[in-house]
Design a protein that fits this description.
Its main location: membrane. Pfam families: MFS_3 (PF05977). Keywords: Cell membrane, Membrane, Transmembrane, Transmembrane helix, Transport. It is a multi-pass membrane protein. Helices cover 74% and strands 1% of the residues. With 441 residues, it is mostly helical. Strands 1-2 form a two-stranded antiparallel ribbon. A hairpin with a 7-residue loop joins strand 1 and strand 2. The chain is globular. The relative contact order is 0.16.
Length: 441
């Protein structure tokens, strides 16, 4: 389960990311609570618009951010983006502590966070694969998700408590300090131990990531499923905060709900780390599980019964996202991994500008339970899309020598790029074997 820890670089990265992510979840909790209760009078639509501004840039800038992740040194990109994110956190803290923060200013900061994260996310996702051997990439992705969700388990609860004790401004200060852990980790990483990378120099290659995904039906269906749940089901800040208010809870109650969600998320990430590779059938099952658990949670009559069902919502969510992320990384041509991951992150993060305002509007008009139910239906639709693809693609068939057992043909690493020696560095040419072009479906 922990084989990626044999890499020094990955161990350092894991620890730095864990500390930084704890601070990030504390800040996310504080930001949501500020918009919902301090800058507005429980206006879920404003909260959805804030989320749209923060998660919209990955969708708008996807071509540029993916090219940057493939073209430039990812470690240096992360050093820059993490520094900028730390500065933005300090700026929000200063405005909150001096009492001059307004909703329009928060919208501006949300947009700035979104633009910076648009460059940070694909570089960070692709950098994980640079630190471990090819065979450990799926395990590293799963452990990275476990780190993220361990932070999600701790951060919101601590953040909610700190909001009550010291106020939202100081939560942003603490998050700014947590970025130092990631910056130190990036400085300590041994560049010579990173995997050699293919050199991409042509500006005409911006569209190759799109063409690559469009040519593979398995990636297209993966992206559609993730989009449906990301847009309409994963608006947890809106759901959890408004449900906490409905049950008569304050910021600490909202933080606890977010942390309970992370219990299931962590379990899903650790279970994914045990699998030898990511499989689409797991993604389909997890999407259905998400839809069912979300719908059940919308019927819960009390705070703690709602919290209990959130464990299963978190488990299915992270199982789905970790499987999708691992599948995309391990079956994508390394020359295009950054651009394809930028597309994937645009789907995950960029779907929020579409879904969050809708979820906020439904919450304001019909209540949070109706909004959660709508997200659950999206999960069931995503499962139906996956099942339809498996049947139509011809990959699902009866096993030989059995009457009722079915099997699904799995995808191995696929390259649709012609191996042009000019595009490869000497180190890559010496360390790799040419891969023949395979059909994706």
């Amino acid at each position: 389960m922990f084989r990626s820890f044999s890499s020094f670089n990955y161990r350092i990265w894991f620890l730095g990311a864990l500390v930084s992510n704890v601070g990030g979840w504390m800040q996310a909790t504080a930001q949501d609570w500020v918009v919902l209760t301090e800058l507005t009078d429980n206006d879920a639509t404003a909260m959805g618009f804030t989320m749209a501004l923060q998660f919209g840039p990955p969708l708008v800038l996807v071509s540029l951010t993916g090219w940057v992740a493939d073209r430039f040194d990812r470690r240096k990109i992360l050093l820059l983006t993490q520094t900028v994110l730390m500065g933005l956190a300090i700026g929000v803290a200063a405005l909150l502590l001096t009492g001059v923060m307004t909703l329009p200013l928060m919208f501006c900061f949300a947009l700035a966070f979104g633009i910076t994260n648009a460059f940070d996310a694909p570089a960070r996702q692709a950098f994980v694969s640079d630190m471990v051997m090819v065979g450990d990439a799926s395990n590293a992705v799963a452990l990275n998700s476990a780190s993220f969700n361990m932070a999600r388990l701790i951060g919101p609860a601590v953040g909610g408590l700190l909001i009550v004790v010291v106020g939202t401004g100081w939560v942003f200060v603490i998050n700014a300090a947590s970025f130092l852990a990631m910056l130190v980790a990036l400085v300590m990483i041994r560049s010579r131990e990173l995997l050699p990378r293919i050199k991409n120099t042509g500006r005409t290659r911006l569209a190759e990531g799109f063409r690559y995904v469009w040519g593979r039906s398995d990636l297209k269906v993966t992206f559609v499923m993730v989009f449906l749940i990301g847009a309409f089901g994963m608006n947890f800040p809106i759901y959890a905060s408004t449900m906490a208010l409905e049950f008569g809870r304050e910021a600490d109650g909202y933080g606890v709900l977010s942390s309970v969600l992370a219990i299931g998320s962590l379990a899903g990430a650790l279970l994914a780390a045990r699998r030898d590779r990511a499989r689409i059938r797991v993604l389909v099952i997890a999407a259905g599980g998400f839809g069912l658990a979300s719908m059940i949670s919308s019927w819960m009559p009390s705070y703690w019964s709602y919290a209990a069902v959130l464990i299963f919502v978190g488990f299915s969510t992270v199982t789905m996202l970790t499987t999708a992320n691992g599948y995309v990384q391990t079956t994508t041509d390394p020359a295009l991994r950054g651009r394809v991951l930028a597309l994937y992150m645009a789907v995950v993060m960029g779907s929020t500008p579409i879904g969050a305002p809708i979820a906020g509007w439904i919450t304001d008009v019909a209540g949070p339970r109706a909004s959660i139910m709508f997200g659950g239906i999206a999960g069931l639709v995503a499962m139906a899309v996956g099942v339809t693809w498996m049947l139509a693609s011809g990959r699902l068939h009866r096993q030989k020598n059995t009457r009722f057992r079915l099997t699904l043909d799995e995808t191995r690493p696929i390259s649709v790029m012609r191996a042009d020696p000019v595009e490869f560095s000497d180190e890559v040419a010496a360390a790799t074997t040419p891969i023949r072009t395979l059909r994706a479906d």
